[in-house]
Design brief:
The protein has one domain. The radius of gyration is 24 Å and the shape is rod-shaped. The chain has helices spanning 3-23, 27-76. It is mainly α. Helix 1 (3-23) packs antiparallel against helix 2.
Length: 77
């Protein structure tokens, strides 16, 4: 799914939730749902950032370890 379709689907779902809550007199609950959605979005963004940072750390560690490993391999040969 591309980003645009995901955003459209999310908007459609939020409208459905809001409509349902209005119909049942639970409009205050919409704010709670919106806060939960925002919290989930933030958690997803933080997870993506963490994943990127971890990849960078792993690449850096691999680069730092290459020289000693190559040296040891040459010594063993």
């Amino acid at each position: 799914m591309d980003r645009s379709r995901i955003e459209k689907e999310k908007a459609r779902i939020m409208k459905e939730i809001e409509k349902h809550l209005k119909e049942n007199g639970w409009m205050d609950t919409v704010d709670v749902y919106e806060q939960k959605v925002e919290t989930i979005k933030k958690a997803i963004d933080l997870t993506r950032n963490l994943k990127t940072e971890l990849k960078e750390i792993i690449l850096e560690a691999e680069t730092e370890l290459q020289a000693p490993i190559l040296y040891a391999a040459n010594m063993a040969a």
